[in-house]
Amino acid sequence: MREVLNELNQWTREGEEIAVATVIETWGSSPRPLGSKMLVTRSGKMAGSVSNGCIEGAVFEEAQKVLKSGAPKIAAFGVADDVAFEVGLACGGHIEVFIQPLGPVHRQLVGMLDRNEPATLRTNLASGQAELIKGTPQGSELARRDGDLFVEPFRRPAHLVIVGAIHIAIPLHRLAKLMGYHVTVIDARAKFATKERFPEADELIVAWPDEAMSKLDIDSSVYVVILTHDPKFDLPALRSVLAREPGYIGAIGSRKTNQNRFDALRREGFTEEQLSRVHGPIGLDLGGRGAEETALGILAEVTAVRFGGSGVSMRAARA
Questions:
Q1: In what order do the strands lie in the sheet containing 130-134?
Q2: For residue 189, which of 159, 214, 169 has the smallest C-alpha distance?
Q3: What is the pTM of this model?
Q4: Where does the pLDDT of residue 169 fall: very low under 50, low under 70, confident under 90, or very high at 90 and above?
Q5: How far apart are CA 21 and CA 37, in angstroms?
Q6: What are the residue boundaries of the structural domains of the chain, listed by start?
């Protein structure tokens, strides 16, 4: 829903009648994941996508019927091989889309998303009834279908916290912004954590890592990357984050460096279970050793953890 939030807020203010189309099932090739949204207004406006173009016209027509009747419906679409090829797919597929008028529950959800509050939307596809629950379950943030029940978790926007405003952090913060993360950069050294070096960061905090972390609301939507490579910064950062439940913890450095950190933390009473949550050495091995390649490897690992991916090549991944 966040990808169409601006349009939804604007059209609601303008008094538009709005239908919400949601991808609830796919088979074969599908360019959009479950939960992808498309909005259609009675006046003919559209926002979002359920297929990157190949069935949007048909969904628009079905949405107009739903707005006229007021009754939600499931619309099934087959994507032919030749059409699929035109939109970048290797072969055709099948997509089911649930189309419903925008209702009070959706307006409540929009309010929570505007306030960055986590929520879970549970929709009964048979009856069209929906309920909104505060908070999201632990685990994957992906939408899922269980029979007639479609469950969509809406966590807070993903938040990347970079501890250490070193050179690698510069391309990392840019890549993260491109991927839609809220980005915070922390460093006790004011000459490193500057707007000139990190123009796209949402927050620059000049403070010791533990002091800065204590002021952040850290939950499973937060991904912490420790790049300082200096015990006087690394250990306070790890102490503060291991006591909480972020979605990811990574620490740059060799295996020996990380082992030394872990040994120090064990002596302080941290458990093996807590230490096992730290990805160190950090990132996926992409071969390159430049700052940009290292940043890409780090964000690739964060992404794999975030979405439950294996991190292996698609050729090697199980179909």
A1: 130-134, 119-124, 149-154, 144-146
A2: 169
A3: 0.74
A4: very high
A5: 6
A6: 2-154, 159-307
